[in-house]
Design brief:
The chain is mostly beta strands. It contains no helices and eleven strands. Strands 2, 4, 5, 6, 9, 10 and 11 form a seven-stranded mixed β-sheet that branches. Strands 1-3-8-7 form a four-stranded antiparallel β-sheet, with no helix packed on it.
Amino acid sequence: QVQLVESGGGLAQPGGSLRLSCAASESIEDMGWYRQAPGKQRELVAGIKSGGSTNYADSVKGRFTISRDNAKNTAYLQMNSLKPEDTAVYYCNADYYWGSFWGQGTQVTVSS
């Protein structure tokens, strides 16, 4: 069982920034950030492969950046130019050939 601990959520003003972190209990492979807003399905925000390639939801391209630090077993999501519609619970996901694991989620609220 892989433990994932997210941090960095909170309240931000429109146009502001937040940085989310996801620390894993062991070496990371493919990582992803997802979000779920009230009344909506969970959606992929950004993903990063073990080799470093990335992909983003169209709604966050140019504003969010996913990265990883393999030495720290940690993935990050830098969120800039935040909008009220980015408000959601953000979840970290770690994919291994032998299983997929989720963090507990961290709330991001964008409001003035």
